[in-house]
Write a structure and sequence with these properties.
Shape: globular
Largest sheet: 7 strands, parallel
Distance between the termini: 45 Å
Helix content: 40-55%
Order of helices and strands: HEHEHHHEHEHEEHHHEEHEEHEHEHHEHH
Radius of gyration: 24 Å
Length: 503
């Protein structure tokens, strides 16, 4: 690792580099692409691997979903009339997918890329906590394998940056260290995680489902697809919990890390594990965000006044980190470990150790924001800001749901039977919604009561190499101690949620 770095060192590193980025249509991917283009216009090429049937489709996706966002307004203003031409010279959209061998690219393109790529950044992931197991394995696990295979073909490759999640640790208590996950390691004592066995299991279950559908002579593809989708979602959750993880997303991301460690060879690898990523704090657009995070559910529900209660202990720490700080850490780590043969470094981009923020900070910031900026309804009248009740335990929430919804549902079910199904549609609809809420609590609940604390000593060492002497150096700030959480939530994040998510 470099002994000392500053903004000039980081900016200079990306000059003339060719970079392959997956997941560029996602939140973090967009921030990274914009940052590199803005601070280092002399980057050679940024190749964005996106799903699309052909190159024009991929190019259109990049234009609409990446470049066309508000995040690029500062760069757009900076480049003026030459903005579009600049992007056409620097950004190349590739129609492909990491779930396929050779990344879904034709051989000539693959060979040309292998001669040119200096840095690979893998941000692509399916982040659905309750996603299909087969899809999650394809993207979060097999995608890593295919990228490693390609990386070994790249003659000039200096670095493979892989973005994971801090929650691959599971929901342990105490200090959680920045260390790789060993092959076979699981979170439940007495179990051994065999990735190949999991892949075989999925193939066997899907084969059995196909045979079952064939034996029932079902011609309804919609029903068959729905059956398979449900079966795959349930299998993912079941397997995750069998090995000690809470959901399919963190489970498959953990497997992806293991596979990366096994297949990387002597390629320099950095694994960045952010916690819950929140809106841009500083540049280029404070408050900009995409996609609803766990904590944003509280803000959106509070803003719309359709959420009277929430599952959280206000004294608990919610580990969050602004998206631009994650990208700053990624760029610094790429420079620090470039061409370190055989290196594999894990970084926690987190805040719970250095500058913890509780759920109460978020709630009080929300109350203050909405009192100072009252919402106005369609009728022009001010919508009063009400207090929200928080359930400090899952048991209390379950009791509330039983008394408020489950018992009335059972009464409705009984009445429906007595009236020969007169209320069937209403009952089925309400019952479906009730089960969905309980599933959400089951899947997301552990995050609200997470008692772990992420150690970030590795990232602290990297921070100590950073010289923060000039305003330019602040462009690469990733120190959570510099965040005033109350000010950030009140003036940046909550207004960002309202602007970008409450549409």
């Amino acid at each position: 690792m470099l002994d000392a770095m500053d903004a000039a060192t980081i900016v200079g590193y990306f000059k003339g580099k060719s970079i392959l980025i997956t997941g560029s249509t996602g939140f973090l991917g967009k921030i990274l692409v914009e940052k590199i283009l803005r601070v280092q216009p002399d980057v050679h090429k940024i190749y964005l691997l996106v799903r699309g049937i052909d190159e024009p489709t991929a190019k259109q996706r990049v234009q609409q979903e990446v470049i066309g966002t508000d995040l690029f307004d500062l760069l757009r203003e900076k480049r003026g009339k030459g903005f579009q031409q600049f992007l056409e010279e620097k950004v190349v959209a590739l129609a492909g997918d990491i779930i396929h061998d050779n990344l879904g690219l034709e051989t000539p393109m693959l060979e040309a890329l292998a001669k040119e790529i200096d840095v690979i950044v893998n941000i692509a992931a399916t982040t659905n906590f309750y996603g299909r197991y087969d899809v999650s394995l394809d993207v979060n696990v097999m995608g890593v394998k295919h990228l490693c295979q390609f990386a070994k073909q790249c003659a000039r490759l200096k670095m493979l940056m892989h973005v994971s999640t801090a929650f691959v640790s599971g929901f342990r208590e105490g200090l959680i260290l920045e260390k790789p996950i060993k092959p076979g390691e699981s979170l439940r004592e007495g179990t051994f995680l065999d990735i190949d066995a999991e892949l075989r299991l999925v193939r066997e279950v899907k084969k059995q489902l196909t045979m079952t559908n064939s034996s029932t002579d079902s011609d309804n593809d919609t029903d068959n697809n729905k059956t398979e989708r449900t079966a795959m979602k349930e299998l993912g959750l079941q397997r995750a919990r069998h090995f000690g993880w809470s959901n399919t997303y963190v489970f498959t991301k953990a497997m992806g890390e293991v596979l990366l460690g096994q297949l990387r060879g002597d390629i320099p690898v950095v694994i960045m594990r952010p916690s819950i990523i929140t809106s841009v704090r500083a540049d280029p657009v404070p408050g900009w965000m995409q996609g609803t995070r766990t904590i944003d559910t509280i803000i959106i529900g509070y803003a719309k006044q359709n959420l009277s209660c929430f599952l959280a202990d206000l004294t608990f720490v919610m580990d969050v980190i602004p998206g631009d700080m994650v990208v700053n850490a990624m760029m610094a780590a790429m420079v620090a470990h470039s061409e370190e043969k055989g290196a594999q470094v894990v970084y926690h981009s987190t805040s719970s150790l250095r500058n913890p923020a509780t759920y109460n900070v978020l709630y009080q910031s929300g109350r203050r924001h909405f009192y100072e900026n009252p919402r106005v309804g369609k009728d022009g009248k001010v919508i009063p800001t009400k207090e929200m009740y928080f359930f400090p335990t899952i048991a209390r929430f379950h009791l509330y749901m039983i008394l408020t919804y489950k018992i009335p549902l059972e009464i409705l079910h009984l009445v429906n039977l007595l009236l020969c199904g007169f209320f069937s549609k209403l009952y089925n609809d309400l019952n479906r919604k009730y089960k969905f809420v309980m599933l959400l609590v089951d899947v997301y609940g552990p995050f609200a009561f997470f008692k772990g604390c992420f150690d970030d000593m590795n990232l602290e060492r990297l921070r100590l190499t950073m010289a923060m002497k000039t305003p330019e150096d602040q462009m690469f700030n990733f120190d959570p101690k510099t965040i005033d959480w109350d000010e950030y939530f009140t003036k940046i994040h909550i207004p960002g949620v309202i602007k970008y998510l409450c549409k």
